[in-house]
Design goal:
With 145 residues, the protein is an alpha+beta fold. It is built from 5 helices and 5 strands. It folds into 2 domains: 11-74, PvuII Endonuclease, Chain A, CATH 3.40.210; 90-145, Winged helix-like DNA-binding domain superfamily/Winged helix DNA-binding domain (Arc Repressor Mutant, subunit A), CATH 1.10.10.10. Strand 4 (133-137) and strand 5 form a beta hairpin.
Length: 145
């Protein structure tokens, strides 16, 4: 992993926040792996996409990158709140396949359970029955607001 930023990418930019964005997004695209499933690369969405900047081609999780010229303070701005909430409830955020990526972790935490996938489905059914999520079919779920 290269820990240096490619400052040549900042040529032509005057705004410090634009420079920070260009440098950090480039670094992330070249060096970052998926923090959810460990896939060795993440892909960049086209510019100006609301909320999400990157996604994992393996587990389809989406990520927003925050950059700042200078030290971070106690709070990090979250962008447009309504867009952020919309992303949380989009259909593509809670698929059964994504939950199955946690199977190994759950099996390690519960070594006596030899039916982890069945337990995952059971828990999703309970969340559905309690009105927390809605089953959309074909392994897709939506969080109810």
């Amino acid at each position: 992993m290269d820990t240096l930023l490619d400052y040549s990418l900042a040529r032509g930019y005057k705004s410090k926040s634009q420079i920070a964005r260009v440098l950090t997004e480039s670094w992330t695209e070249e060096n970052m792996y998926c923090p959810v499933c460990g896939w060795p690369t993440i892909n960049k969405f086209p510019n100006n996409r609301a909320v999400a900047d990157f996604y994992c081609p393996n587990c389809r999780n989406e990520f927003e990158q925050k950059s700042k010229n200078g030290a971070f303070g106690a709070k990090i701005a979250d962008g447009a709140y309504s867009t952020f909430i919309q992303r949380i409830i989009e259909d593509n955020l809670f698929t059964l396949e994504m939950v199955y990526h946690f199977e190994e972790d759950l099996a390690a935490k519960h070594p006596n359970n030899h039916n982890v996938r069945a337990k995952i489905r059971q828990q999703l059914q309970q969340l559905r029955d309690r009105g927390i999520i809605t089953f959309l079919g074909d392994g897709h779920y939506r969080k109810n607001v």
